[in-house]
Design a protein that fits this description.
With 169 residues, the chain is α+β, with helices and mostly antiparallel strands. The chain contains four helices and five strands. The strands form two sheets. A three-stranded antiparallel β-sheet has the order 3-4-5.
Length: 169
């Protein structure tokens, strides 16, 4: 089981332990789908792994429901953590006399780091993070993709129409 834990570096208070969305899923299935997502696999990979373990088949629609729920709950948790991070950064800079300007912008020192997912050496996904230099907390992040989902869906739609048309002729 993969657990997420965030602790305060000063008082060691546990800010976040186990994701709360675990309770809303079928325990075993949800954890298996989550593990597949962490491994960078999709539905086809999940089906292959299940076949090796002699586990039941899961439709793409069901798999997508699980991944959607997991993704949405992860985003909620991430947003809560980032809100708390930004509050801490603002408090730390206030200690040295730096406060937000009239438009609410706080001038902070940051560093940026990013990486592409490299599992199987052909992933299309990457992430970049902006990290505050004083507190070393992530204050923002960006998930990147090497292709456009809109273009792909238009291509798939046109391909289906073409195939349907050619099959009828």
């Amino acid at each position: 089981e993969t657990l997420v834990s965030a602790n305060c570096t000063e008082c060691k208070h546990v800010v976040l332990e186990k994701p709360s969305w675990y309770q809303t899923l079928n325990a075993a299935t949800g954890r298996m789908v989550y593990a597949e997502m962490l491994a960078g696999g999709g539905h086809a990979s999940f089906i292959r792994r299940n076949a090796v373990c002699n586990l039941p088949f899961m439709t793409l629609q069901t798999f997508n429901k699980y991944t959607s729920l997991i993704t949405n709950k992860s985003i909620e948790s991430c947003n809560q953590i980032h809100t708390k991070s930004r509050e801490i950064v603002t408090q730390e800079y206030a200690k040295v006399g730096s406060v937000p300007d009239q438009s609410g912008v706080l001038d902070i020192d940051v560093t940026y780091d990013g990486t592409w997912h490299t599992r199987d050496q052909h992933s299309n996904y990457g992430i970049g993070a902006t990290i505050d230099a004083v507190t070393e907390l992530v204050v923002d992040y960006q998930i990147m993709c090497k292709f456009c989902f809109l273009c792909i869906s238009i291509f798939v739609s046109r391909t289906r129409k073409f195939l349907k048309k050619s099959m009828n002729n």
